[in-house]
Amino acid sequence: MKGKLVRDQKAGAFHFITFSCFHRQPLLNATAAYRCFEHEFEIVRRRYEFVVLGYVLMPEHVHLLVGETRIASLAAALQVLKQQTSRKLKSAGQAQFWQRRYYDFNVWSEEKRAEKLGYMHRNPVVRGLVAKPEDWPWSSCRHYLAGLRGTVEIESFWTAWEREQRRDPDGRRVVVPTLAR
Questions:
Q1: Separation of alpha carbons 83 and 87, rounded Å
Q2: What is the pTM of this model?
């Protein structure tokens, strides 16, 4: 019997999260599935008010680098994300879409944050899915390289710069609240 899983949440850290499809089957391996996941991820991000530093969607698993939520717990937000995507992606007769548990690693330093982002973005290359990280459309890599906006809002230099540049009709800079710490 497995011991109780302890999570260090509400600790003011970012979290490197990994969860897998049921029995690590490539259940996400379709454009429609990737798009659906990104759409639901953004809905949950807004609802639970957390920042996303990065992500990558792989055929049989997902990596997320996220901040803590302002409401509820990160565990609750992830449960909703998995439930919503499962309802939309599970095929008829399929018992389960996601493995029940997930891996959560607290990211306390800038060095660890850069390491985890690099690991995520290189994952499709290591797996032989693409030649370069920026060739994989289902990650935050293109946002970091060129500031490209996707379905999921990524908190980065680019989004901070964009907020700073916004102006009202009178030409004054508009202060846009951010979820970043």
A1: 6
A2: 0.83
Any domain includes 47: yes
CA 70/CA 48 separation, integer angstroms: 6
Residue 165 lies in a domain: no
pLDDT score recorded for residue 48: 96
**Residue 50 · residue 155 · CB < 8 Å:** no
CATH of the domain at 67: 3.30.70.1290
Looking only at the bridges linking them, the beta strands covering 103-107 and 52-57 are unpaired
Q: How many domains does the chain have?
A: 1
The model's pLDDT over 62-114, given as tens digits with 9 standing for 90+, comes to 999 999 998 899 999 999 999 999 999 988 778 899 999 999 999 999 999 99
Give the DSSP per-residue string, 153-177.
---SHHHHHHHHH-B-TTSPBPP--
Domain extent at residue 122: 14-156
C-beta neighbour count of 181 within 10 angstroms:
9
**Per-residue tokens: 136:** 């994989």
Token pair for residue 18? 């990994």
Tokens (6 digits) for 43? 């809905």
171: alpha, beta or left? (left if phi > 0; alpha if psi -120 to 50): left
Give tens-digit pLDDT for 8-22.
455 568 999 999 999
